[in-house]
């Protein structure tokens, strides 16, 4: 029973006679016991099937546990009404609970605000905090705010170091030995062609297909081949549009479970991977790995047209669109083209008017989180970008880049008529008005013809 419902009944039976109160308390207790039995049944149904042997016969748990569990539930419910889902067999004491549950099977989503839909009103209420910017739960150690208590709880583990989730697969010595290789970094299986090592023989087997060119699993729609059938199954979701993993907080869907796990760190604010050189935090180990190339100067991917190097191939691919002028992402409302999908996403907010990021101090709204972050520096006075030559600080990195041209005596903007050079495009624009005889600043006064 939901806490709000229980509070309602509590207030109700306080107004009744003492005898009715006792009866209602007993009824609430019975319903609570019934829910506990239902939860116990659900937990047991989720365990893997396994066999056990008696002196007479061998039984399979999956064949008997559901039947016996439901008999216990019906016995616990007694004479009260019982509502059963005909698709999955789950039991409910209230018809309203069954109706809500059925939306999982039908895909019906009643609550809509910004285009995202939800099958339950409480999920809709949680999502609305994204638009309102409400974050009532505050971390007492670092002052960070969260829109849900669960996110604060997860975030607190960063400070406490608590890791409550233990791998349940380590139930025999063989699995324990494999798991321990993660801690010892032992990789006894080595590829003879490239020298890469693996902690399991099966992983080496899959890796060898890269060298042999063997791709037994091929997509029938696009022809792309994969070394493993499981990877092909995940790839097919791109064609089918299936996103079975949904964020319970914002409703965003994902093709893979690991992408959902990474996305959840956005809500919890968890960034467990820290750079030992500059202290910057990251939510993924791979992002820390790419970041370390900033310190080491390692750039694997180089543009063959302009010579600029990048730490990631994906960034190089995006950069190449500057040379090819390719803009594959098109706005269906105004026809404007973009070279990156994220830029199209931000552009769409111009049409929808969506500004989900709100300044908690002045209430100003922004369409992008980065814009809010820059804006917050006005209130905090933070100037994180400092000139190493004169010590002057700036709110934004672009301002520091402009400032550095003073020290470097760099003046890339030249006047085509007189050859005079400028450090900024804006200064060149002002200068050009001398040649065009444009005087926008005129003092409109009788007898005065002075211009500026």
Protein architecture, described:
This is C2H2-type domain-containing protein. One of its GO terms (molecular function) is DNA-binding transcription repressor activity, RNA polymerase II-specific. Residues 83-110, 112-136, 137-164, 189-216, 217-244, 245-272, 273-300, 301-328, 329-356, 357-384, 385-412, 413-440 form the C2H2-type domain. The chain has 452 residues and is α+β, with helices and mostly antiparallel strands. It has a domain at 385-436: 2-Layer Sandwich (Double Stranded RNA Binding Domain), CATH 3.30.160. It is 47% helix and 12% strand. It contains 16 helices and 26 strands. The strands form 13 sheets. It has a two-stranded antiparallel ribbon. Strand 11 and strand 12 form a beta hairpin. The longest helix is centred in the first third of the chain and has 29 residues, at 18-46. It is globular, with a radius of gyration of 31 Å. Mean pLDDT is 72; it is low at 12-69.
- Main sheet attributes: strand count, strand direction, barrel closure: 2 strands, antiparallel
Strand order of the largest sheet: 1-2
Instruction: Estimate the global geometry from the Cα principal axes.
Output: globular
For the record, the CATH class of the domain at 385-436 is Alpha Beta
What is the helix fraction of residues, given as a range? 40-55%
The CATH homologous superfamily of the domain at 385-436 is called Classic Zinc Finger
So how many helices?
16
From the N-terminal CA to the C-terminal CA, the straight-line distance is 75 Å
Low-confidence stretches: 12-69
Structural class: alpha+beta
What radius of gyration results from the CA coordinates? 31 Å
As an assembly, this protein is: single chain
- Nearest-integer average pLDDT: 72
Give the strand tally: 26
- CATH architectural arrangement of the domain at 385-436: 2-Layer Sandwich
